[in-house]
Each structure stands twice: as structure tokens, then as C-alpha cells.
Design goal:
The chain starts with 12 loop residues before the first strand and ends in a 5-residue tail after the last strand. With 336 residues, the protein is an alpha/beta fold. Helix content is 27%, strand content 22%. Bound molecules: iron/sulfur cluster (SF4). The site of iron/sulfur cluster has 14 residues, from loops.
């Protein structure tokens, strides 16, 4: 198994999010006004090529909406996404799929139960007309071997496999086109604990083998600590802290990050994130608190916090987000 690489500020960027936002209009009829939900709020983030960026936060914080924007499944309301330095705003989904692929949480629902495994894994090659049928079959065999599945798996159906084997199939399908960036959306949270470590180690090995970059979305901090180079902590649609794994795990600055780490959550598959010990629950995202969105739950909130929203600031440079010091931690708190 390989270990996470050291954070490298000089590496070219695989992914850059520039002031990305996504809002949804909810409800509204003759009697009631519609409400606006800001699922992603002015998020700027840089992910160097070959690294793993962990994205953590409670359920409903906007992580999965962010993933959907990156995969072209929903357009952003504002801001830009750059992959390898190129904006993807006008790219169609087929073109995007050459560069970016997802691995989802649930290998049971993400695989077509009526297709054989070789058909499932080879589908992206057929869609993009890459190689002859013989070359495609050879690539499928090679990919199945790389993810640790026996040759006979090619003739099986998803229903004949265990959860861990199905997730290996999903990984093979995601990587067969050699994408630049992989969005891993809770890829182990539906698996038995005994299988989780095997899948995480496989993902790390394949990252090194293919030079991949991962955006790894999870609410399980133990998982993220195992493989992330950098971490971004999300709360109510905003990044509240970002830094290297060491910075976040050894010296978290934001009170929300501190609460997440103190709770050391490892929820059971299928369950929501339990109480993280902050007293009040998450606010209604259609009525976000004024000032710092975290202030109703913050143990060190001051009067200023309910009035003035803190900027995500590079602590060492004292500069605002999106500046050129990616190895320095950024924190959105007046009193970090
Ligand atoms: Fe807490 Fe205030 Fe910092 Fe927000 S700005 S995290 S409320 S101390």
C-alpha cells in the first residue's frame, strides 16, 4: 500500500474551483413564497495534480452538490470549474467523462444488475468508441486484474458478487478510460468495516499507478486521515477550513473542525451523521444565520460573529481566499 504524498504547492492543478455557488428555488405557490437554498456558497479550492483532497462535513453541508457540479450533473449558479487549467463550463458530459469519473457510495445501485461485469466495465470504451472489440475486451481483463478481481468475474452479474467486489467493479469502470480526476463520493461507507480498508488501499495503489487525482468526499474522518494529502472542511455550503492533513489533524483552527475531530465519527452504513456535541443542530439552510453561519453552534462565538461573516483567510499571509499560498492553512473564523 502506498501512503499519501506530501502536499506540494508547486504541482500543477488538476482541479480549481473559483467562487463556485449553487442555489435552488424551493416550493412556492399562490399562498407561500418560494425559498432559496444555497447548497454551495462561494467555494474556491485548488487540488494539485496527483494528490487526494478530502472534503468533509456533516450530511447536507453541500459536499454531494459540489460533486454533481463537477460531474456535469447540475450547472453551477455562479463561478467556474477548471480541470487541468481549462474551464469546463461549455464542455458536454461525454467530453467531460474523459477527464473526470465518479465512484459512488452504493455499489448495489450504481451497477446495472442485468449486465455482465465485462459489459459494465467496458461500457465507457464502447460509448467513446475507443479501440476494437478485441482491444476493449483486453482492457477490461487488464482492469479487472488491476482491481483484484479474478478472470471469471467478467462473466458474472452484480448480484453474484459481494459488496466489496461490486465496489471493485465500480472502480474498474471509473478508471478504464484513465481519467485525470476521480470524484470518490463516500466510496466505502456502504461496505463492511473489514472490506473498507482493502478498498481504500486499492484506491491509493491505483492513484499511484495511474497518476490520478482524487476529490474524496466523506464524513468519516478516520477514512480521510488514511488517504488525504489535503483536507477541506465544509459547513452550510462554505469551506470553513482548508489545509494539509497534518495541519487539520494536529492543529485544527476552526471550532467546527475541532468539534468534528473531537467527535471522531464513524457512522454505521446508511445512518446519518450523529450529534457532534455542538448542542444546537444544523440550521435551516434556507434561512442561514447572519454573520458567521456557524455562530448559533459555536462554543466561542462573540457578538461580532452574528453580524460579520468571516472570510476564508490564509492565516500566515493574512490574504483572502484563492491566493498563491496553497500550503498554508485557510480558516474562516474571526478568532482562529
Ligand atoms: Fe465561532 Fe465566531 Fe469563529 Fe464563527 S467567526 S467560528 S462564530 S468564533
Amino acid at each position: 500500500m502506498s501512503s499519501p504524498t506530501a502536499a506540494n504547492s508547486t504541482a500543477p492543478l488538476a482541479l480549481e474551483l473559483c467562487a463556485l455557488s449553487k442555489t435552488f428555488k424551493l416550493g412556492g405557490d399562490m399562498l407561500r413564497k418560494s425559498r432559496t437554498l444555497t447548497a454551495v456558497n462561494n467555494v474556491s479550492l485548488r487540488v494539485p495534480r496527483g494528490q487526494v483532497m478530502g472534503l468533509v462535513g456533516e450530511s447536507g453541508c453541500g459536499k454531494s452538490t459540489l460533486a454533481k457540479i463537477l460531474l456535469g450533473l447540475t450547472p453551477p449558479s455562479a463561478g467556474d470549474v477548471l480541470i487541468n487549467g481549462k474551464a469546463i463550463a461549455n464542455a458536454n458530459q461525454k467530453a467531460l467523462a474523459r477527464h473526470i469519473q465518479p465512484i459512488f457510495q452504493d455499489p448495489y445501485s450504481s451497477l446495472n444488475p442485468r449486465q455482465r461485469i465485462d459489459q459494465i466495465v467496458g461500457l465507457p470504451l464502447r460509448i467513446h468508441a475507443i479501440g476494437t472489440a478485441k482491444e476493449q475486451a483486453a482492457k477490461v481483463d487488464e482492469m479487472l486484474e488491476l482491481v483484484g478481481l479474478p478472470k471469471r468475474a467478467a462473466r458474472q452479474y452484480p448480484g453474484q458478487m459481494s459488496g466489496g467486489q461490486r465496489q471493485r467493479v465500480a472502480i474498474a469502470r471509473a478508471l478504464i478510460m484513465r481519467p485525470d480526476l476521480v470524484i470518490c463520493d463516500e466510496p466505502t461507507s456502504a461496505l463492511d468495516v473489514s472490506v473498507q480498508a482493502q478498498i481504500l488501499n486499492l484506491l491509493l495503489d491505483l492513484k499511484d499507478e495511474f497518476g490520478l487525482t482524487y476529490l474524496f468526499i466523506s464524513h468519516d474522518l478516520a477514512v480521510v486521515e488514511h488517504l488525504a494529502d489535503r483536507l477541506a472542511v465544509m459547513y452550510l455550503g462554505q469551506i470553513v477550513e482548508e489545509g494539509t492533513r497534518e495541519q487539520i489533524f494536529t492543529a485544527p483552527r476552526h471550532p467546527y473542525t475541532q468539534a468534528l475531530l473531537a467527535s471522531a465519527l464513524t457512522p454505521e452504513p446508511g445512518l446519518g451523521v450523529p450529534d457532534i456535541g455542538l448542542g444546537a443542530g444544523q440550521p435551516d439552510p434556507t434561512r442561514p444565520p447572519t454573520g458567521c453561519a456557524f455562530h448559533p453552534r459555536c462554543p466561542i462565538a462573540q457578538p461580532q460573529c452574528s453580524q460579520q461573516p468571516p472570510k476564508l483567510t490564509n492565516l500566515v499571509q493574512g490574504a483572502s481566499q484563492g491566493t498563491t499560498q496553497p500550503n498554508q492553512p485557510r480558516v474562516a473564523c474571526h478568532f482562529a
